[in-house]
Every structure is written in C-alpha cells, then in structure tokens.
Amino acid sequence: MARRSRERRWRSPPRPRRLAVDHDHQTGVVRQLLCHRCNLVTRAVEEDPALLDAIRHYLGQHGS
C-alpha cells in the first residue's frame, strides 16, 4: 500500500512525517495512504463539498 500511495500521491510533501490510512467513512473501504494534512483536508471536503469553493473564494479575495 505504501509503494502504491507514493506512486499516486497528490500534493503531499515528498517525504511526509505522518501517513494516514484514508478510507470512506460510510463504507469503511480503504482508499490509500495520504499524508496527515491531505487526509484532514480530504475528510473536511468529503463532509462539506462546498467548503472547497469557499476556500477558493477566500484565497482569491486575499491574493493567493
């Protein structure tokens, strides 16, 4: 699983300090390993997909 996750990792640091097993909270099906930060963001957006647009808007308003 670690090797496959390294090959498919997205936006994570090259050598994350902490890995988390990402899974679907409704079914319990494991998706892959993510760095801790990406796992937190993924969970937050999974709970509230509109959050992603709100973050984009916020960053757009503040020059990022």
Structure description:
48% of the residues lie in helices and 17% in strands. The chain is flat. A two-stranded antiparallel ribbon has the order 1-2. The protein has helices at residues 2-8, 36-47, 50-61; strands spanning 19-23, 30-35. The protein has one domain. A hairpin with a 6-residue loop joins strand 1 and strand 2 (30-35). The model has no long low-confidence stretch (mean pLDDT 83). By secondary structure, it is an alpha+beta fold. The N and C termini lie far apart (34 Å). The protein has three helices and two strands, in the order αββαα.
Structure summary:
Helices cover 48% and strands 17% of the residues. It is of the alpha+beta class and 64 residues long.
Characteristics:
64 residues; alpha+beta; two-stranded antiparallel ribbon; 3 helices
How large is the count of helical segments?
A: 3
- How would you state the average pLDDT, rounded? 83
The tally of strands reads 2
Strand residues, percent: 15-25%
Structural class: alpha+beta
Spatially, the strands of the biggest sheet line up as: 1-2
Overall tally of structural domains: 1
Q: What integer value in Å does the Rg equal?
A: 14 Å
Biggest sheet layout: 2 strands, antiparallel
Q: What's the helix-strand series? A: HEEHH
Shape: flat
Low-confidence spans: pLDDT under 50, at least 5 residues? none
Note the gap between the termini. 34 Å
Helical coverage, percent range = 40-55%
